[in-house]
Specification:
By secondary structure, the protein is mainly alpha-helical. Among the domains are: 14-52; 60-104 and 150-275, Cytochrome Bc1 Complex, Chain D, domain 2 (Orthogonal Bundle). It is 50% helix and 6% strand. It contains twelve helices and six strands. It has helices at 2-18, 21-49, 56-60, 81-93, 116-125, 158-164, 176-179, 183-192, 208-211, 254-269, 273-312, 320-330; strands at 101-105, 130-133, 140-143, 150-151, 222-223, 231-232. Strand 2 and strand 3 (140-143) form a beta hairpin. It is extended, with a radius of gyration of 36 Å. The structure holds heme C. Heme C binds at residues 90, 94-95, 97-99, 165, 168, 170-171, 176, 180, 187, 190-191, 232-235, 237-238, 261. Heme C (HEC) binds at residues 90, 94-95, 97-99, 165, 168, 170-171, 176, 180, 187, 190-191, 232-235, 237-238, 261.
Length: 334
C-alpha cells in the first residue's frame, strides 16, 4: 500500500518544494474559466443562429377587461340577486346547449331567491334530461330532472360532446371562474371579445396577419384575442341584442348578457362566498384580541422572574469601553 501513494506523494512534494501548488491552482482555475467561456460563447452563438420563435399569442393576447361585480373584494356579496337570476337565464337559454354544470344542483337555486315550487318546475322543464335506467327493461334511458339532480350535460359522454364541437370539449362551467386566470372578468371578456381577424391590430398598431401570416384562424375555430392561443372552438354564443328576453325590463344587450352570466358563474363557483366573507371580519378581530391578551399574559407571567434576575445579577458589560470601565472599577489592570 505504501508504494501506491509513494509516487504521487513524491510528485506533489516536488511541486510543493518548487512552489507549484499555486500554479496548479491557477491552471485548474484557468481551465474552468476556459470551459465556462466556451459554453457561454456556444450559447450566445446558438441564440443568434436560431433566435427563439415569437408566437402570435405573445404579442396579440389581451388581458381580461375590467368587470365590477357586487361579489368582488373582501366585503363582496350576492345581493345583486336580480342580476344573478338574469345570468342563470342566459345559462339556461344559451350556454346549457353545450356546457354542463355538474357541481350545482337545481335545489341550490334557492340561493338565488327561487322558491321550492319554482325550482321543481325549472328542474322538470330542463331541456337536458338526466341519464337513468328503464326499471322494466334495464336499458339506458333518461328521465326528467329533480331538484336534487345536478345540472346535467347536454351530451351523453365526452365522445359525443367532442363530435358535436369540432373535437373540442366544452368544459363544465360550475367552477370556470375559479379555474381561469381573471375569473369572471375573463369569462366576460371572452364572451364579448370575438373579433374579425382580417385587419386586426393590437394596441401598438401592429397588424396580426402582417406580422404572423401563419396565425390565420383555421376553419371551424373562432378568433378571440382574450383566449390564450387566440383561436377557440366555441362559436360566439352571444351574438345579438334580445337573444334572451329579461322579465325585469333590463335591456338584453350582448354586453349585459355577458356581464350577467359571468356574475352568475361567480355564484356557481362559490355559493358560500357570502358566509366566508361574513366570517372573515369577526375571526380577524377575534385573533387580534387573542394576540393582545396572549402578549399581556406573557408580560404578566414573566414580570417577576425578569425583574429579580436583573436586580441580583447585573448584565455583563458588552462593549470594549464598558469592559474597560468595569475592569477599572474592579481594580484589574491589563
Ligand atoms: C355551441 C356550443 C357552445 C355554446 C352554446 C357555448 N359554448 Fe362555451 N365552449 C364551447 C366549446 C366547444 C368550448 C371549448 C373551446 C376550446 O377549447 O377551444 C367552450 C369553452 C368555453 C369556456 C372556456 C374557455 C377556456 O378558457 O378554456 C368558457 C368560459 C365558456 N365556453 C363559456 C360559455 C358561456 C358563458 C356560454 C353561454 C353564454 C357558452 N360558453 C356557450 C361550446 C359552447
Amino acid at each position: 500500500m505504501g508504494s501506491l501513494f509513494a509516487l504521487p506523494a513524491a510528485v506533489l512534494g516536488f511541486f510543493v518544494r518548487l512552489g507549484w501548488v499555486r500554479s496548479i491552482a491557477l491552471f485548474v482555475g484557468g481551465a474552468f474559466a476556459l470551459v465556462a467561456t466556451m459554453s457561454l460563447y456556444s450559447g450566445i452563438s446558438a441564440y443568434y443562429a436560431s433566435p427563439p420563435t415569437v408566437l402570435a399569442s405573445a404579442e396579440f393576447h389581451l388581458e381580461p377587461k375590467e368587470l365590477a361585480l357586487r361579489s368582488d373584494g373582501p366585503f363582496g356579496n350576492f345581493k345583486n340577486q336580480a342580476q344573478l337570476q338574469r345570468g342563470f337565464q342566459v345559462y339556461s337559454e344559451v350556454c346549457s346547449a353545450c356546457h354542463s354544470m355538474n357541481f350545482v344542483a337545481f335545489r341550490d337555486l334557492k340561493g338565488l331567491g327561487y322558491n321550492d315550487a319554482e325550482i321543481k318546475k325549472i328542474a322538470s322543464d330542463w331541456k337536458n334530461q338526466v341519464p337513468s335506467v328503464n326499471p322494466d327493461t334495464g336499458e339506458a334511458a333518461t328521465r326528467k330532472a329533480l331538484p336534487s339532480d345536478h345540472f346535467p350535460s347536454p351530451f351523453l359522454n365526452e365522445t359525443q360532446a367532442r363530435a358535436a364541437n369540432n373535437n373540442a370539449l366544452p368544459p363544465d362551467l360550475s367552477l370556470i371562474t375559479k379555474s381561469r386566470e381573471g375569473g369572471a372578468a375573463y369569462v366576460y371578456s371572452l364572451l364579448t371579445g370575438y373579433a374579425s381577424q382580417a385587419g386586426y391590430k393590437n394596441e401598438d398598431g401592429k397588424e396580426l396577419l402582417k406580422e404572423f401570416p401563419d396565425a390565420k384562424t383555421p376553419t371551424n375555430l373562432h378568433f378571440n384575442p382574450y383566449f390564450a392561443n387566440l383561436n377557440l372552438a366555441m362559436p360566439p354564443p352571444l351574438t345579438s341584442e334580445g337573444q334572451v328576453s329579461y322579465a325585469d325590463g333590463t335591456k338584453p344587450t350582448v354586453d349585459q348578457m355577458a356581464r350577467d352570466v359571468s356574475a352568475f358563474l361567480v355564484w356557481t363557483a362559490e355559493p358560500n362566498l357570502e358566509r366566508r366573507h361574513a366570517a372573515g371580519l369577526p375571526v380577524t378581530v377575534f385573533l387580534l384580541v387573542a394576540a393582545l391578551l396572549a402578549y399581556l399574559a406573557c408580560q404578566n407571567i414573566w414580570a417577576g422572574v425578569k425583574g429579580k434576575a436583573r436586580a441580583a445579577d447585573p448584565p455583563a458589560p458588552r462593549t470594549p469601553a464598558k469592559i474597560r470601565r468595569a475592569k477599572g472599577n474592579a481594580g484589574i489592570t491589563g
